[in-house]
Amino acid sequence: MVADTILYHPTFGKLTRFLDSTPKREKCFRLVVYLSRFLSYYLQRQGFSPEVVNIFKDLKHHITIIRKGMRFLKPLNHLQAAAQTFDNKLMDPVLQKTTVIRNLGYVGYLSVDSITWLKLMNVLSAKRFPTISTWSSRFWLIALIAGVINSLRTLKISNAKLEEKESEEINQKIYAAKRKLVWDFLDMFICLNSLNYLHFTEGDVGLAGTITSIMGLHDLWKSSK
């Protein structure tokens, strides 16, 4: 039967295992949020009716609430990662410090973002903490800057090793660091727009977020068994 062929296919099994994980489902929702953000802007520019445009605006709003709820208490993961990295005395000092700062930045970002979620859920008054989203973006920016410095340091170390000895493993590290730079710069583009340091359109921000979401899902898919 066709149904059996699909249900017992290895890819389908991998997909079910992939979606049976809160972090991976959250990343799927991230893709939906930014894609909706892009489509609502694009369709509006193309002259589609407000009803059609509002479908994607409402989808973005509702999925955003779900995403923020799924990330509740996630700061604990980054806090643990920061502590473990801080205790690793064998690590390159620059990589160590930037990894700690990046994780602490995400602790701040996700902690403050949890307050935003409580406001969206009407647990807290919408009038309270009016600048909370700004602080959330600031913490995110700190984490991204630390990530960029970390990737640049990784590139410097890897290129120095590559001059001494050609290695496929080192080439992969260089590729991963360059890819992470692109990823962080795209996320930084989103962050700087939310802080009003840049003033690009919702479509531009949505497209950047869609790209980084796909990159994240690609990595998670590859790491899934």
TrEMBL record:
A Pfam match: PEX11
Localization per record: Peroxisome membrane
GO cellular component: peroxisomal membrane
GO biological process: peroxisome fission
Entry keywords, A to Z: Membrane, Peroxisome, Peroxisome biogenesis
Protein name: Peroxisomal membrane protein PMP27
